[in-house]
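PROTOCOL LOG
Step 1. Enter all chains and additional molecules of the complex.
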Amino acid sequence: MAVLPPGLTAEQFAAAVRMFEDAVGKEWVFTSDEDLTPYRDSYSTVWGTPDERLAAGAVAPSSVEQVQAVVRIADRYRVPLFPISTGKNFGYGGPSANLAGSVIVDLKRMNRVLEVDENRHFALVEAGVSYFDLYRYIHERGLKVWIDCPDPGWGSPVGNSLERGIGYTLPYFRDHFGASCGMEVVLANGEVMRTGMGALPAAKTWQEYRYGFGPDPAGLFAQGNFGIVTKMGFRLMPQPEHYRTGKITVLRRRDLIPLVKTVNYLSDSFLIGEPVYASPLTALLGNGEFLKAATRQGGAVDAEMDRFASVHRLPAWQVELQFYGPEKTCLANWEYAKERLMREIPGAAAFEGESLPIPITPKQLENLDAPYPTGIRRNTALGIPSLGIWKIVSGDGHVGLFPIIPRSGEAVFEAQRVLGDATREFNLPPFFSAVTAPLHWHSFAFQMVFAPSISRSDPAHNALVERAVRKVIRIAAEHGWGDYRAPTVYQDAVADTFSFNNHALRHFQETLKDAADPNGILAPGRGGVWPKRFRSVG
Amino acid sequence: MSRLPCIAIAAAGLFGLVNAAAADGDGKLPIAAGKVVYERVCAPCHGRGAGTDGAQMLPGAAALAARYQGKLSPFLEDRSDLNADALKVFVRLGVGAMPMFRKTEISDSEIEAIAAYLSASK
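Step 2. Run joint prediction.
Step 3. Record the structure below.
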């Protein structure tokens, strides 16, 4: 199963492996089929096909010095490396590389939480630390800070933020790369570099001022291939005193437009956490007549959707609001939100949710006492990692594609129509219908979810999903909606859509790549950026 | 937080237990270490008790309940047929939506310790 790195003979690779073993210890270098199997992408649309990106090996350093040694060996032998932190990037390629024949640099053993400051609200962690690890560290010490974690929480702050992952609390913290502050990176020549204030040898604000002085290269390492990030700082949320929820419903389909407009105001004014949108009409999708109307070619008819809402006495849309802070300000912000929304949108109704002192009780964590069915996931809304969300992962898993769309009701309607029509031919579940709600995970933009299932045993289904994914990438881009993240096998397709001015961005990225990594050893192809020697591959 | 503090307490001692056990006799990890590793790696998905946000079971237990339809317990701690070799197949190859786990996440000796713990927990 294992393949050789491109351009290397078996003898050359064996020599590199021996040097990797000398650097990190024989037990932490993996080349057998058995050991490399878990480095395949569990949720791959190209599983078992010639397009699958199989690894040549894996090496697991335990220190920055060992990472440096691995990089220098790889540079000497021209072995392409692909770093992972915890390898839990499921739906986006898991631990697999962009280039077949890469050696995975598995940083899981670098698992130390180096610092958490509950007064200045930051953490500094190594690359293999998981959200569970960081949560435990904080709670074992009773520190009054929260993490913002993705769902599920077995990934790592470093890996997730470098993928520009998102969370579920306040806008600033939900943007995991945006809330990072300072990183340590091993470059392609083996040098260790620190960004921001970390470049100051006597730095005392590495996790408090991210920019340092002069150009800040930190962004190059997110979805990038300019170095191996070994440490990273993160801003943490002060533990709030209180948490409150409430729900607003609106009657008509086009009421989504003023609803989004005002919720944007609330969000950008730092009054609320993640707004959770939904359409109560989703309950009617089992009704054939409604399903036909909600998935109508050319888009749903507003009056028709409103008629269903009226007949079934259901609101067209709802949004659940979340408030964090002192009890009095949580209440005041909720009172303001509901007064304004009910005044602006005729027929809007407000429903009191829960009002919980922090820390909540184990019973409250179960999230069973909301006065209405809630779409808020209690664990992640309160920064508590879990694996509970895996309940939505059926069969053999899925791939994820999330076009970013403008934060407006009009954009939601257009995306429903365009992407619904684009995916109709594939006979997949209706990801884009008239009741598809936007996700407000990102701080200042909506995204729509397209996550078709994959199969380990049905290549024909995977081939269909492959065609669907590529079509969604293309059609979305034609309408101005770019993807924020993509499985490794689709990153070239996504990168191709960012083509303004004859791919000026790509030309700049390639110029930097060739200068910083002249032998092209670091994650060739990641983010759609290929070094010179592999450009014909990408 | 009914489950997480248990996990947290267990995890706090994981590496100490594992390291101490490594010096023992035949190199096998003791059952107590298996319990610790089980609670850290397996229980967040396969443990007893409710799942999140109203789910009756955690996802791994729910998946096994659906698969076995009452013929076997959905909880790993009730099972007596999961020896180390069987566990390694599921851990290293994954099954259904359960992904594969690498040796850097859970070692072969830790899987063996989990098997010993599960065998002793009946």
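Step 4. Note key features.
Chain B has one domain: 4-120.
The radius of gyration of chain B is 14 Å.
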